[in-house]
Amino acid sequence: MNYLSVVVAASLLLLGCSAVSTMDRTEPLASAAAIEGHMLFLASDELEGRDTGSRGHEIASLYIATQLQALGLQPAGDNGTFFQRVPLRSSRLVPNSARMVLHTADGDQALPYPKAFFSGADPVATESSVSAPLVFVGYGLISEEFGINDYQGLDLDGKIAVMLPGLPEHIPSEEAAHLGRERSRFAAEQGAVGIITIHTPQREAVRPYANSILYLNTPSMRWLDSDGQPGGVQRQLRGGAYVHHEAAEALFAQAETPLSAIFEQLEAKEMPAGFALNISATLSRQSTHEDITSPNVVAVLPGSDPTLRHEYVVLTAHSDHIGMIQDVRSDNRVNNGAMDNAAGVAILLETARMFTELEQAPKRSILFLVVTGEEKGLLGADYYAHNPTRPIENLIANVNMDMPVLLYPFADLIAFGANHSSLGPVVERAAAREGIRLSPDPMPEQAIFTRSDHYTLVRQGIPAVFLMTGFESQDPEQDAAAIWGSFFAKHYHKPTDSIADLTREYGPIRYDFGAIFTQINFNIALDLANDPQRPFWLQESYFHDVIGQPHTQQAVLEAAN
After folding, report:
1. Which residues form the Peptidase M28 domain (predicted)?
2. pLDDT score of 548
C-alpha cells in the first residue's frame, strides 16, 4: 500500500461480534491454512522484497500464475499466457545536474541545489531545459463542480506555472485528492511549459523539506506506451522544481503581492488568486533512463450466462513491494511485505480457489488481476487500465485487496469508495453474512480511496471498492486501533513487516480472520457476478459526472429499463 501518511483515530467503541455459523452453508469455505501457505512463500526472504523489476518479483509472479493455472483458470494475459508484461522506464537524476536560475531586472540569480530547490528526473528526455516567464496560479486547480478555476484571467501559454502544494480544505478529501492528481494536466491544457511548486510553512509543519531531499537519489518509474513513451506524462511540461518557502520569496520579488501575503491567506483558509510574477526562470536537468519490464498476472473464470459471460468482475491485488534496504549495517535488510501485500495476494488466490469449486460458474466472468508496480505509483494497474486484455467497457466492477492487517480478530471492515456507487449495499450484505459490519472511513482526510490500484480503474469509469480491516476487535482485551496504528508506525515499509517479526510482537498471525476476509471477498464478487444489473455510480457522487464513463451509465439505464 502506498500511503504517504496515516492518522489513526484515537478512540473507537469495541463491538462484540461473532462469525456466522457455517452449518447451513453450501458454497466453498475459505481455508486459513491455504492463506498461511501463500503468505509464507510470498513474504519469504528468498524473494528479497519483491521489488518491481527484480528477480524476486519475477519469482513471485511465476508462483501466482502457476497457482491460478493449477486451479484450472484460463490465461488472460498477452499471447495466451497468464502474464501481461508491463514496459517500464526507470529514471534517475544525474547528480548535481539540476539548475534553476531566476532572470530579474537586477540580473540572474541561481538558486542553490538542493538547499533551495530540488527536481526529479525527466522520464521523457535525458537532457531537458526550459526558459519562460513565471505565473502564480494558486493551487493550480480547475473544477466546475466546486466553482474553482485558478487559471481564470491568466495567460499561461509558454509560461511556467508556480503553484502551491496541498489542497483547499473546503473540498471533500477524496474529491480533492482526485483533483490534485490532475494538476499537471490542468497546467498543460492551459499552455504551461513547466511547473514550480512552493514548499509552504504549512507543509513544513507536516512534512519538513529536509525529509524530502533524503530521497533525491531514488529512481522514479513510468510505464511506456506502444511508442515507447512514458504514459500519463504531460510531455510539453519540460521543467519542474520544488522550492523551499524561504528561497521562494525571490520568485515574488517583483510581483504585485509578496509571498508572505500568500502564506497569510493560507493561514486564513483563503484561496489565493493568481497573477504574473514579472520575472522569468530557466529550469534544466540531466537524467538517465533504464527500460525494464515487470509482469502483471491475469487469469479468468468464464461465466456461465451466454450474454453476461462477456462482462467481468475484476478482483485485484498488488504483488510487488519495496525490495531491500540499502543500509549494510543491518542484518535484517529484506522488506518482506507480509501484510503489504502478501496478505492481499493470498486472499485473492484463495478467493480464486473458492470460485473454481462452485458447482456452476457465476453468470458473469471473474477476472483475477495481480499487478506490479503499485509501490512505484500504481503503475501495473494503470498500464492495465490503459491496455486491458478484455474490453474496458466490459469490466463492470473492481474489488481491491491491499494490505489487510491480519493481526487481530477484526469485527468491522472499512470499504473505501462504497459511498460512491451501488457497490455499498453489496459489500455490506457480504460482510454481514460473516458477522462483520461496515464502519465509516475513520480517516477521511487521508483520501485513501485514491491511493491504491483500484483507483486507476475508477478513472476509467469502473465502480470500485477497496477493503481494509477495521479498527474494532472481537477480543475485548485487544485495542484494534492501537494495533493498527502500531503496525503503521513501526512496521509499514520496513523489514519488520515479516511474519516472524509481527508474530513476535503481536502473537500469531490471524490467518483464520484472513479466511473470513476471503469469504467476504468471495461473497461480494459472487453477488456482483450474478446480479442482472451492472453496478453504477450514485447520482449524488462526485465521480458520477466527473469520471463516470458513458458506456457504464448507458448500461445502467438499459438494465433499469
Report:
1. 296-502
2. 55
